[in-house]
Amino acid sequence: MKILKTQVGIIGGGPAGLTLALLLRRQGIEAIILENRSREYVQARVRAGLLEQNTVDIYKTLGVADRLLKEGQQHHGVYLSFNQERVRIPFGELTGGRNITIYGQQEVIKDLTDAWLAGGGEIYFETSATRIEDFETSTPKIYFEQQGQAGVLTCDFVAACDGFHGIGRKTLPASAYQEYTISYPFSWLGILAHVAPSTHELIYAYHERGFALHSLRSEKISRLYIQVDNDDHLDNWPDDKIWQELALRLGTTGWELKTGPIFEKSITPMRSFFTDNMQAGRLFLAGDAAHIVPPTGGKGLNLAVADVKHLADGLQAYYQQNTLETLAAYSATALKRVWRAQDFSHFMTTLFHKQAEHGSYQYQLQKAKFDYIKMSEAYATSIAENYVGLPFEAFEKNI
Ligand code: APR
Ligand code: PHB
Fold this sequence. Notes:
- The protein is α/β, with parallel strands linked by helices.
- It contains 13 helices and 21 strands.
- Strand 19 (279-280) and strand 20 (283-285) form a beta hairpin.
- The mean pLDDT is 96.
């Protein structure tokens, strides 16, 4: 049996696990990452690409933001469209200069993995954690399997950064937490295409045929999405039909959608999920292991990074001041932002997706919200500050 030992055993080499490992290294705390998949697989996995100001600031502090700042695109506003009428929400003016950066998650993963390895960090790919034991004691153990060989990682703390399907959450005692799930009656068909974006800032659109989003990756690559039914299939969506639908849903007077060869296509269901407790003994959940938000607010990766910041603060307090107090409050601290993001992601999802007949009561509520954005700077500001992400200090006030 392969035997490993470290201070913090991290399951999962996604954004949560890698960011945590780098935050810990800065404090002189040791960590080992176990990752189920191969390095190639993890780095090729296409996901959203919206980084909040908080996330970029953390990556700058960690010294891993060089490429992000060079190749990522800073956006100072976003377009919201309803029935082909488009308005812009200017973040800069409404949030005192905060903004977002568009940079693909797989690029983030490459930068973090490179930085972890370059500093001598240990990450075991194609290594699957199978069981977590003794997390109620001071020597928890993560049992794993690496290409048929069994092993155990003994550590002081376990960070389960192992995504929605991981073993971390399932290991929490059933009595320790409640789960909440909403499955939406629609999915996103997402594409990547070799074509210059037809917009400088993202466009979120409600249309009577359904939601559409125009995002981007670079000057030559566009990322776009359309709402489809949950039982829909990629076979029903030849490239021409996707472009036609996008042009209709995103369209507005005097604007044209540029089209080009599509090189990635996938369908993702929309879900909101969370657990009301993210820890038990010396086992801590972070990121998708504890919560999922629909991508309409662009919050997934940012929540994972905020979680591990709080977790790293707690671990630092333990190793440097010998107190477990900050760690004991981890769940409560992280959940404040999780709830905010759950609410905002649900709000954006229900505002822009077609849920009931065009013209129905539900539709009129959606339209009333859109009209309110146009007439009230206060409402637009609320959307802007949630979209760019509230600063960490905001959650420390009076809650
Ligand atoms: N053993 C080892 N690794 C595991 C195990 C296991 N038993 N189970 C899962 N993993 C790995 C997965 O292969 C994956 O690489 O854990 C990692 C979890 O990474 P993510 O799913 O990316 O989750 P997280 O790091 O929390 O990042 C959240 O990812 O889903 C997106 O939009 C979401 O941007 C958000 C971000
Ligand atoms: C993306 O660029 O993939 C993206 C951006 C914003 C979202 C969702 C996805 O809300």
